[in-house]
C-alpha cells in the first residue's frame, strides 16, 4: 500500500471518528435534558408537544436521520403551498441561483474583459465597484421589489447582484495581469486583437476568472436562503422558515444538512471546471 | 566595406523616460547608429541598465523611440512584424499550449491560409531541428529550462523571419545547458544563413556567435562606444575557439571594455574625434595577424 493511500485511509478513519463522537455527544446532550413528565391536563400537554412529556425540544440524531431519510425517499411530493418535498424546494432555489449567477456571468465576464484591457476604464470604474461590492445583496431587495414588482424575479435579481462583483473583479484582475511577455509574443506575430483575446488573454486569465465564479456561486448560495426567507412562497429558504414556524427543529436541522450538501456540490462542480483551465508555469 | 544588403539600419536612435523625480526626462541611450547586414550575426554587449532590452524592443516594434528611427528592409519600423521574430529572455511560451501548439500558434499567424496538415508538417520540421522530437505534446511546465528555450528558438524560426532578434536568450540557463544551446544555435543559424541580432552580456557567447559586436557604454545616456569585428575564423566552435591566437586579444578587448571603458567612455567621447554615425571599428587580433586594425 502506498503512503498516499495510507494517509487518505487515516484521514477517512479520523473523519468517521469525529462524526461518531459528535453524534454521541449530541445524543447524550438531548437525553440529559429529558426529565419527568409534568403533571398537567393531557390536552394542554398535547398542545405543548414533547416538552410537556418530559422530552427535550431538541431532536436526537436518530430523529433527524429518519427525517432526512424521509425527505430523501420522497423528495418531490407536492401537498399544497406549505407542504412540498425538499427536492422541489431545492430545485426552486438551484434554479434561481443558476439563473441569477448565469446572467451575472454573461455580463461580468465580457465587461471585466473590456475593463481589464483598458487601464483607464479600470481606474475610472474602480471606485463604483468598490462602493457597490460591500453592499449586502438583501439591501437591494426593497428596490427590486418596488421596481420589478415580482418576488420571483426580485430574488433572481438579488442573486445576480451578489454574484456579479467577484466575477467582475476577478476578470478585470485576471485580464489586466496577463504576462506582458505573452502579449508581446502575440504582437510580434501580428495576431489580430480578437484572436489575441481568444487565444492568449482568455486562457491566461481563465484560472482567475474561474476563482471569481467559484466565490460568486458560494455567495449566491448563501444569499438565496436569506432571500427566500424574505420573499417566501417556494425554495429551501422558505422551507427552513416554514419548519421554524411549525416549531419543527428536526425539519430545520435536516434543511441545514441539505443546504450544506447542495452548496458543496455547486462548489465541487466549479472546482472541477477550474481544474480544466488550470495551467502550470 | 561589405556590399551586402543592410537588413536593419539603426539611425540616431534615442530613448528617454520621464525621470523618477518627476522633473524632466532621463535619456537611456542616444545617438545610436549601427546596422545589421544580410546573413550577418551582430551582438550588442553592455552592462545592465544601458537600455539593451529597450533597444531590442524598439527594433522589434514593441517600443517607440523618442527620436531617430530603425529601418528594416527599407521601411521604418513602427510596429511589430512577422519579418522580425523575437526570442525572449524568459522563453515566453504559453503554458496552456503544448510544444506543438506554441509553434503552431506562430505558424498559423504567419500563414493563416495553410490547412492543419501543412502547418503540422512545418512545425514538426522545426521541432526536429531543435531536437525536441517526441516532446510535441508536452506542456512547457514538463520541459527543462533548456528545452523551453529550444521551443522558443523553434517558434521564432518557424515563421521564417528576415531577422531574428534575441534578448539574452540563454541568460536564465545553467552554464552546461547554455553551452550546448549556443552550439546548436550557431549550427542552425549558419545552416540557414539567418540574419540575427542578439543582446548579451556574456563575452564568450558574443565571440562564439557573432560576426560583429556593438559595444554599448553604461547608461544613462548610453552610446555606442565602438564596433568590434570578430577576428576569429567563421568555422569556430565552442570547444576549439580558445586555442586560436586571436581569441585572447578579442576576449581581453571586450573585458577591458566591460570593466573599465564602459564607465569612462564619456571622457573618451569628449577628447577624441568621435563620430556617432560612424563609431570606430576595431579588430582585435594577435600580432602578425594580416587584417589587424581595419579602420578607426
UniProtKB/TrEMBL annotation, chain A:
Matching entries from SUPFAM superfamilies are given as: MetI-like (SSF161098)
Q: Note the InterPro entries from the entry.
A: MetI-like (IPR000515), MetI-like_sf (IPR035906), NtrB (IPR005889)
Task: Provide the topology term for how it sits in the membrane.
Answer: Multi-pass membrane protein
Gene this chain is encoded by: ntrB
Species of origin: Aliishimia ponticola
Q: What is this protein called?
A: Nitrate ABC transporter, permease protein
Q: Which lineage ranks, top first, belong to the organism behind this chain?
A: Bacteria, Pseudomonadati, Pseudomonadota, Alphaproteobacteria, Rhodobacterales
Entry's family note: Belongs to the binding-protein-dependent transport system permease family.
Task: Enumerate the PROSITE patterns for this protein.
Answer: ABC_TM1
Task: Give a yes or no for keyword Plastid in this entry.
Answer: no
Question: Is Protein transport included in the keywords of this UniProt record?
Answer: no
Which positions, given as ranges, span the membrane? 12-32, 94-116, 154-178, 219-241, 247-266
Q: What does this protein do?
A: Probably part of an ABC transporter complex. Probably responsible for the translocation of the substrate across the membrane.
UniProtKB/TrEMBL annotation, chain B:
Gene Ontology molecular function, alphabetical: ATP binding; ATP hydrolysis activity; nitrate transmembrane transporter activity
Q: How does it sit in the membrane?
A: Peripheral membrane protein
Q: Which InterPro entries match?
A: AAA+_ATPase, ABC_transporter-like_ATP-bd, ABC_transporter-like_CS, ABC_transporter_ATP-bind, NO3_transporter_ATP-bd-like, P-loop_NTPase
Q: Where is the ABC transporter domain?
A: 8-243
Q: Which UniProt keywords apply?
A: ATP-binding, Cell membrane, Membrane, Nucleotide-binding, Transport
* Recorded superkingdom: Bacteria
**Region annotation (Disordered) ranges:** 270-296
The record's Gene Ontology cellular component field reads:
plasma membrane
What residue ranges carry the coiled-coil annotation? Answer: none
Q: Which Pfam families did the record assign?
A: ABC_tran
Give the CDD domains listed for this entry.
ABC_NrtD_SsuB_transporters (cd03293)
Q: Where in the cell is it found?
A: Cell membrane
- Main location per UniProt? membrane
Entry-linked PANTHER family: NITRATE ABC TRANSPORTER ATP-BINDING PROTEIN, TAURINE IMPORT ATP-BINDING PROTEIN-RELATED
Q: Which family does it belong to?
A: Belongs to the ABC transporter superfamily.
Q: By what name is this protein known?
A: ABC transporter ATP-binding protein
Q: What is the lineage of its organism?
A: Bacteria, Pseudomonadati, Pseudomonadota, Alphaproteobacteria, Rhodobacterales
Amino acid at each position: 500500500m502506498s503512503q498516499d493511500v495510507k494517509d487518505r485511509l487515516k484521514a477517512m478513519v479520523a473523519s468517521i471518528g469525529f462524526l461518531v463522537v459528535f453524534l454521541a455527544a449530541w445524543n447524550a446532550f438531548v437525553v440529559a435534558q429529558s426529565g419527568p413528565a409534568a403533571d398537567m391536563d393531557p390536552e394542554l400537554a398535547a398542545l405543548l408537544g414533547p416538552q410537556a412529556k418530559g422530552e427535550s425540544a431538541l431532536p436526537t440524531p436518530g430523529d433527524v436521520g429518519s427525517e432526512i431519510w424521509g425527505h430523501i425517499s420522497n423528495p418531490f411530493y407536492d401537498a399544497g403551498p406549505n407542504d412540498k418535498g425538499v427536492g422541489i424546494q431545492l430545485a426552486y432555489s438551484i434554479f434561481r441561483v443558476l439563473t441569477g449567477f448565469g446572467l451575472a456571468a454573461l455580463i461580468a465576464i465580457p465587461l471585466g474583459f473590456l475593463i481589464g484591457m483598458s487601464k483607464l476604464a479600470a481606474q475610472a470604474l474602480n471606485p463604483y465597484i468598490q462602493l457597490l461590492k460591500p453592499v449586502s445583496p438583501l439591501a437591494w431587495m426593497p428596490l427590486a421589489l418596488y421596481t420589478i414588482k415580482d418576488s420571483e424575479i426580485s430574488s433572481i435579481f438579488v442573486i445576480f447582484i451578489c454574484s456579479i462583483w467577484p466575477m467582475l473583479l476577478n476578470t478585470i484582475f485576471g485580464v489586466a495581469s496577463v504576462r506582458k511577455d505573452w502579449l508581446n509574443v502575440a504582437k510580434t506575430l501580428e495576431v489580430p486583437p480578437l484572436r489575441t483575446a481568444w487565444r492568449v488573454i482568455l486562457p491566461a486569465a481563465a484560472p482567475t476568472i474561474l476563482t471569481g465564479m467559484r466565490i460568486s456561486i458560494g455567495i449566491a448560495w448563501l444569499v438565496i436562503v436569506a432571500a427566500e426567507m424574505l420573499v417566501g412562497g417556494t425554495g429551501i429558504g422558505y422551507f427552513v422558515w416554514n419548519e421554524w414556524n411549525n416549531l419543527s427543529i428536526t425539519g430545520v436541522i435536516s434543511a441545514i444538512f441539505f443546504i450544506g450538501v447542495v452548496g458543496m456540490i455547486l462548489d465541487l462542480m466549479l472546482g472541477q471546471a477550474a481544474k480544466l483551465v488550470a495551467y502550470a508555469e | 566595406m561589405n556590399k551586402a544588403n543592410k537588413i536593419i539600419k539603426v539611425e540616431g536612435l534615442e530613448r528617454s523616460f520621464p525621470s523618477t523625480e518627476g522633473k524632466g526626462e532621463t535619456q537611456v541611450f542616444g545617438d545610436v547608429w549601427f546596422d545589421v547586414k544580410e546573413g550577418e550575426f551582430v551582438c550588442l554587449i553592455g552592462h545592465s541598465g544601458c537600455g539593451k532590452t529597450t533597444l531590442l524592443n524598439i527594433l522589434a516594434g514593441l517600443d517607440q523611440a523618442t527620436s531617430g528611427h530603425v529601418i528594416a528592409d527599407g521601411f521604418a519600423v513602427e510596429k511589430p512584424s512577422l519579418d522580425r521574430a523575437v526570442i525572449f529572455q524568459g522563453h515566453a511560451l504559453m503554458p496552456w499550449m503544448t510544444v506543438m501548439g506554441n509553434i503552431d500558434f506562430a505558424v498559423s499567424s504567419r500563414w493563416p491560409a495553410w490547412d492543419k496538415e501543412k502547418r503540422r508538417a512545418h512545425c514538426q520540421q522545426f521541432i526536429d531541428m531543435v531536437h525536441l522530437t517526441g516532446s510535441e505534446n508536452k506542456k512547457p511546465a514538463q520541459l527543462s529550462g533548456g528545452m523551453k528555450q529550444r521551443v522558443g528558438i523553434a517558434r521564432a524560426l518557424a515563421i521564417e523571419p528576415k531577422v531574428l532578434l534575441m534578448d539574452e536568450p540563454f541568460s536564465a540557463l545553467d552554464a552546461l545547458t547554455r553551452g550546448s544551446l549556443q552550439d546548436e544555435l550557431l549550427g542552425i543559424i549558419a545552416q540557414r544563413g539567418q540574419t540575427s541580432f542578439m543582446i548579451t552580456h556574456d563575452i564568450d557567447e558574443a565571440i562564439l556567435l557573432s560576426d560583429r559586436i556593438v559595444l554599448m557604454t553604461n547608461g544613462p545616456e548610453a552610446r555606442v562606444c565602438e564596433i568590434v569585428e570578430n577576428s576569429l575564423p567563421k568555422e569556430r566552435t565552442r570547444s576549439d575557439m580558445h586555442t586560436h591566437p586571436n581569441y585572447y586579444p578579442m576576449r581581453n578587448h571586450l573585458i577591458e571594455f566591460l570593466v573599465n571603458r564602459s564607465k569612462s567612455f564619456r571622457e573618451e567621447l569628449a577628447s577624441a574625434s568621435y563620430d556617432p554615425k560612424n563609431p570606430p571599428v576595431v579588430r582585435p587580433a594577435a600580432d602578425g595577424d594580416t587584417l589587424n586594425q581595419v579602420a578607426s
